[in-house]
Write a structure and sequence with these properties.
Layout: H1 2-41, H2 45-62, H3 72-92, H4 95-103, H5 117-127, H6 131-141, H7 146-153, H8 157-181
Length: 182
């Protein structure tokens, strides 16, 4: 009886090692996505690190439950955005964090990305949006179609299309205003 038990443990350890290896590979492939979402929802660098950790932890907890009926990017966005929105709600309840969040203008820079002035304005615009609209913008900027966005956000395609159009109009007005200021 003891030998069977030991074999079961050995098999389980091997399965966990394989799962760890797969998860690390998966995480490496989607790290830019995670950083983009965290960057949109969290301006403070230290809070952003916490948010990235929270997203990663939730991805790890859910990794073995991934439903292959969905694209891995859709699944990743859904988890990252849900964790980010929850994090944002928690942050908004603390006045001191809210104050530093709205005043700080530093962005997370990936090593190989140079942020130009228009991109900086775009992130400031996105920062002013409601949490759901931020999520929509992130997904739209990643090239996701309305159908995938509706799956990730749990909304109808019509609602997504309407929101995108309204955001585009606001964005156009925002950039026109920025040009007049300069």
């Amino acid at each position: 009886m003891r030998i069977i038990y030991s074999k079961k443990i050995k098999v389980k350890v091997e399965e966990l090692k394989l799962q760890d290896s797969d998860f690390i590979e998966y995480l490496e492939s989607c790290k830019k996505l995670i950083f983009k979402v965290a960057r949109i929802y969290c301006k403070d660098p230290e809070d952003r690190k916490d948010l990235v950790q929270d997203i990663t932890l939730q991805l790890w907890k859910s990794y073995n439950k991934y439903d292959k009926a969905y694209a891995i990017s859709t699944w990743t966005y859904r988890i990252a955005l849900n964790v980010s929105i929850s994090h944002l709600r928690k942050t908004k309840t603390r006045q001191s964090l809210l104050s530093s969040y709205s005043q700080q203008s530093e962005f997370l820079h990936l090593d190989d990305v140079v942020v130009d002035e228009n991109l900086e304005h775009l992130y400031k615009f996105i920062e002013s949006l409601k949490p759901i609209d931020k999520a929509l913008m992130v997904l739209h900027m990643e090239g996701c179609k309305s159908k995938e966005i509706s799956t990730v956000l749990g909304m109808s395609e019509t609602n997504i299309s309407t929101r995108k159009q309204r955001i585009k109009e606001k964005l156009k007005l925002y950039f026109e205003t920025q040009k007049q200021i300069q």
